[in-house]
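Reopening this ticket.

The earlier resolution said the output was attached, but the attachment link was broken on my side. Pasting everything inline this time so it's all in one place.
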Amino acid sequence: MPFLLIFTLFALLDFVILFSVGSNIGLWTTLGLVLATGFIGLYLIRREGTAALARARQRMEQGELPSSELLTGAALIFGGALLLAPGFLSDALGFLCVIPGARRLLARLLAIANVRLQILAARRSGNRQGESDDWQQARGEQAGKEGTRRPGQCDGEDGPLEGDFISRDETSR
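Inline output:
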């Protein structure tokens, strides 16, 4: 519900700005600006998208997960959709998502906002009685209730678990 409210208010504010600017500078100038931002946005998305795809391929060839490149791609898609929508507020936010330096700044701001939202959610929920945040503690309580399992054994097995142990000093295989 809050997302729908924010989306509706954003669209209304975007159209109010578009119509007020349009009444001051004229229809054809406003239409030209909206079309120009759309074409510039498409060009930037194409350029930045191919660069992000090249970086993702390079990281995949190195055997790494291209997580930052995937987030960049998502920001480019979101920014492109905003640039194609008519309105100056959506264009400004779309350019923030498409331009690399502004995209990093926007990512930092969203990370700060996310941390603050998590802190608020944790304060609201508090520690509820009977819930455990630590999964190891929860498993230990379950195992203690059953009482039939010894450390090092799994359900239905009589012997210890077998596997390889790699020391922290050894290099990974």
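Reporter confirms the inline version is readable. The mean pLDDT is 78. Residues 11-123 form one domain.
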